[in-house]
Amino acid sequence: MKIKTLLCFDFGEKRIGVAVGQTITGTATPLETISVHQNKPDWGKIKHLIDDWQPDALIVGTPLNMDGTTQRVTQIAEKFARQLEGRFHLPVFGMDERLSTYEASQRTNNSTALDPVAAQVILESWLAENSDKISSVSNGINKESTR
Prior knowledge:
Layout: E1 5-10, E2 15-22, E3 27-37, E4 40-41, H1 43-53, E5 57-62, H2 72-88, E6 92-96, H3 100-107, H4 114-129, H5 131-137
Parallel strand pairs: 1-5, 5-6
Antiparallel strand pairs: 1-2, 2-3, 3-4
C-alpha cells in the first residue's frame, strides 16, 4: 500500500487550523493556523502548504449543530472546500467536526494551538472512519463527503 498524505483544514471565519496525516498509521500532526482576513483565507499560505506536503487529498471539517443540522458556517466551510478543489485540483472530503475543539482543548493547554490540534482530531477521525475511501484517493476523482 502506498503511503498517502492528507492535509486537513479546520475552517473558521477568523482562523483555519491545518494538520497533516498519512494513511499507513492513521495518525496526524498539527501544523499551523492560517489567518482569514475580510472573509478570505490566506490562499498563498495554503498553496505553500500544498506545495510543501504534496497531499493526495484534502479534508475539510464540516461544522454542524449538535443535532446534526447545518448552520450558517456550514455553507461557508463547504464553499471553502469547493474553492480548495477548484484551485488545487485535489479530491476534497468533508468530515463532521462536532466536538473537535473540545477534544483539542483536552489535548493541549495552549489556547493559541487549538485550531491545528482540532484539525488533527478531524483528520484522525476521518482516517479511522474512511479506510474504504483511501484507495480511491489516488484516482483524484472522488468528491464524496462524509457527515
